[in-house]
Amino acid sequence: MYNFTLRIPTIIHFGKGAISHLDELKGYGSKALLVYGGGSIKKNGIYDTALSILENAGVAVVELGGVEPNPRIETVRKGVGICKAEDIDMILAIGGGSTIDCAKVIAAGAKYDGDPWDLVLDGSKITVALPIFDVLTLSATGTEMDPFAVISDLSKNEKWGTGSPYMVPTMSVLDPEYTYSVSKKQTAAGTADMMSHTMESYFTKENADCQKYMAEGLLRTMIKNGPIALNEPTNYDARANLMWAGTHAINGNVGEGSQPAWCVHPMEHELSAFYDITHGEGLAILTPAWMEHILSEDTLSNFVDFAKNVWGLSGDDDWELAHAGIDALKKFFFETMGMPSNLRAVGITDDKNFDIMAQKACDGSKGSFVPLTKEDIVEIFKAAF
Ligand code: NZQ
Ligand code: ZN
What we know:
- The protein has 385 residues and is α/β, with parallel strands linked by helices.
- It is 48% helix and 11% strand.
- It folds into two domains: 11-178, Rossmann fold; 184-384, Dehydroquinate synthase-like, alpha domain (Up-down Bundle).
- α10 runs antiparallel to α12 (318-336).
- Zinc ion (ZN) is lined by residues 141, 193, 196-197, 265, 279.
- The site of zinc ion has 6 residues, from α6.
C-alpha cells in the first residue's frame, strides 16, 4: 500500500428531511448563489423547500439555473460573473453531478482573476474558493464528497476533469427521497458510474486488501440495489444504499493507497466531449471492452477475484472464471439495468474520431494498472462499437 494523506472535511447530513440543515448556511455569510440544472428541482419541490429554509435563515439568494448535463464552461463563466457582480458569499448547488461540478468551478473562478477554463486545465491554479454547499439529487458521481469537477468546452470537443482541495464541498445534504424522481435511464447511468469509480480503484496490483475488500462491498451494494431502485423508484433503502455507496466510491476511501487504474474515465470523457453522451452509459459500454482487452496472464488473478468476490461465481478453471466475471458485468449493465450495449446505440455511428479521441484519452490517462497506448484505446473503441 503506498503512502497517502486523506482529508475529507465535508459535513454530510444524510437522510429524510436532512435539507433542514441548509439553515447552517447563515454561518457562512448572507448571500448565496443558488445553482441548479434544467428544472427537475422545481418539479419535485426541492427548490421551494430550499428557498423557504434560506429565507427563514436570512440568507439572500441569487439564481443561476439551466446547468447542462456535461456542464459547459460558458455556464461557469456566467456564474463567475454573477458572483463578482453580486458580492456572493457562498455557492449552493442543488442537483446532480453536472450542477455540483459547475458550482465548484464557479466557486473557484469567483476568486480567480483570469478565465475559469484555466482552472479546468490546471487545478493547481485554484488557491482559494467560495464555500460550496450542495443538495444531491442523483446518486452517481460522488462529487458531493470529492475534490473533482468535470467541465466541457464543446466548441473545442474538450471535456476535462480538474481537482483541488478547495473544491471539496463544505457540506452536502444527502436525502435519498430526493432521488425518487430520477428516471430509469439516469438511475442506470448513475449506478454504472459509481461502479466504474469503484472498479477503477479495484483493479490494481497494489496489495491494499482493506481498500480491495471495501471496493468489493461497495460493488455488491450497487449490484444489489441498482436493479431495485430501477424497478421500485421509491424504495427508500435501495436509494439510500446507492447514495451512500456512490459517495464512498470516489471520496478516497478505496482509491487512496491502492494505485488505481483510472483508464476508462479518460476514454469516456472523449466520447462525451465529441458526442455529448451520458457519462454513465459511456462507461457501461467501455468497461467490459476494456476488461477483455487487458485480461492476460498478468491480470488473471484480479479478474478471478472479481468473479468470485463481486459476482459470487465459482469454478476450477481460472480463465473461464475470469471471462464469466466480465460476462456477468455485461449482463448486469445491458440486460438487468437495460443500458445501451454499444457505441452505435448512443448515436456514435462512425469511427472517424477514434484516433484523435484515443490520443487525447492517452494523454489524459493516469492509469497504472495496465498502461494503454493510443493503439490499445482505438482497439477498445472498436470493440465497443
Ligand atoms: O438538470 P436537471 O433538470 O436537474 O435534470 C438532471 C439531468 O437532466 C436529471 N436529474 C438530476 N436529479 C434528478 C434529475 N431528474 C429527476 N429527478 C432528480 N432528482 O438527471 C440528468 C443528468 O444529471 P447530471 O447532473 O448530468 O448527472 P450526473 O450526476 O450523472 O453527473 C454527470 C456529470 O458528472 C461528471 C460527468 O462527467 C458528467 O459531466 N462527473 C463528475 C465527477 C466528479 N465530480 O467527481 C466524477 C465522474 O466520474 C464524472 O466524470
Ligand atoms: Zn464517473
